[in-house]
Write a structure and sequence with these properties.
Mean pLDDT: 91
Protein name: HAD family phosphatase
CATH topology of the largest domain: Rossmann fold
GO molecular function: sugar-phosphatase activity
CATH superfamily of the largest domain: HAD superfamily/HAD-like
Distance between the termini: 25 Å
Low-confidence stretches: none
Pfam family, one: Hydrolase
Order of helices and strands: EEEEHHHHEHEHEHEHE
InterPro entries: HAD-like_sf, HAD-like_SPP, HAD-SF_hydro_IA, HAD_sf, PGP-like_dom2
Shape: globular
CATH class of the largest domain: Alpha Beta
Helix content: 40-55%
Oligomer: single chain
Number of strands: 9
Organism: Luteolibacter luteus
Amino acid sequence: MATIGEFNLSAEGFEAVIFDCDGTLVNSMPSHFEAWCEALALHGAGGIFKEDVFYAMGGRPTKDIVVEINDEYGLKLDPERVAFAKREAFLKKLGQLDLIDEVAEFAESLRGKVPMAIATGGTRLVIEKTLQAVGVSDLFEEVVTADDVKVGKPAPDIFLKAAQLLGVAPEKCLVLEDAPAGVMAAQLAGMTVISIPAPLNVAKK
């Protein structure tokens, strides 16, 4: 049985399991941070996005984060242009990605037993390429992205959409999440959440 910290991972009592992608299933957060830094520097805002702030904002749609950066620093960055630059920078780093072993082992153990979905604040293009890069695209019945809902995390919409597509009541879903916004979103959706500890979603030494 897979474990996270001192806890055994189990889907017992649940009818579906929903996974966040970045920082939960895939060790991609360091690469996302690098991409953010490159995109912001390209638009004249290099050095303003600190790593601890980046992790605190994890799970939220890219354009929403740009809007908050504008508000925080009095900038006028174009959310669409920065999001595009960040996406392009990240896609060049797909070869750096690997799975978070404990979570991937848990997902693999549920193959064919419990329906599973990805619910992510990323865009469909990026998430599909991420899942392909680490070889787990075939594990999940559904993938719900920021492109599929009007409001991203910490609103519950992404998780509720995933439950709807899986045909399972929200209260019967187990969620694995690493980011505060994602944990809040899952809780607002009425789901049980296992929080993935930060040491698992940072760069491997």
